[in-house]
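**User:** Once you have settled down, spend some time on the protein underneath, comparing sequence with structure tokens, and judge whether sequence predicts the tokens.
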Amino acid sequence: MSAADAARPLGPTAPVPGAADPAVDADRFRLALGRFATGVTVLTTFSDGHDHAMTANAVTSVSVDPLLVLVCVELDARFHDAITESGVWGISILGAEQRAVAQWLSTQGRPLHGQLDRIPHHRGTATGVALLDGALATLELRTTAVHPAGDHSIVVGEVVSLASTEHPADALVYYRSRYQTLK
């Protein structure tokens, strides 16, 4: 390939419709990103003498050397202070059969104490955080950085322990504001 070919745009060169649209707002933003299917996880930590948990789909692998993962947590979420103060946390990647768990842990106003009482779980061996039984995979992490990002914090953690099922069930995914199954 010549240098001229390498510099040539690969896609359409016309402006993308709506790219500079002044009517872009939070609702349209959520609608657009709702078109992006994501896995569903439960984040857990232990702070102030009890477990904290929340459903999350803003989870991304960052690096394999070292093993890093990031999560985005809303500043106003009760989980925010718990994860930033604790310094250790867990991720349980949910299977399709765990839809009720995802719904419960995303319910606004649920009791702060005893959130995991009705959910089978065990303690991670590296950090002691709760990890959900039956999850497709679990990870334990130690926080390495917290970055402010608008109305959220980006929490980066190094993986200190992980496990995954040998024969995973169907995955639980979130798409167009609904839980769905990926076979």
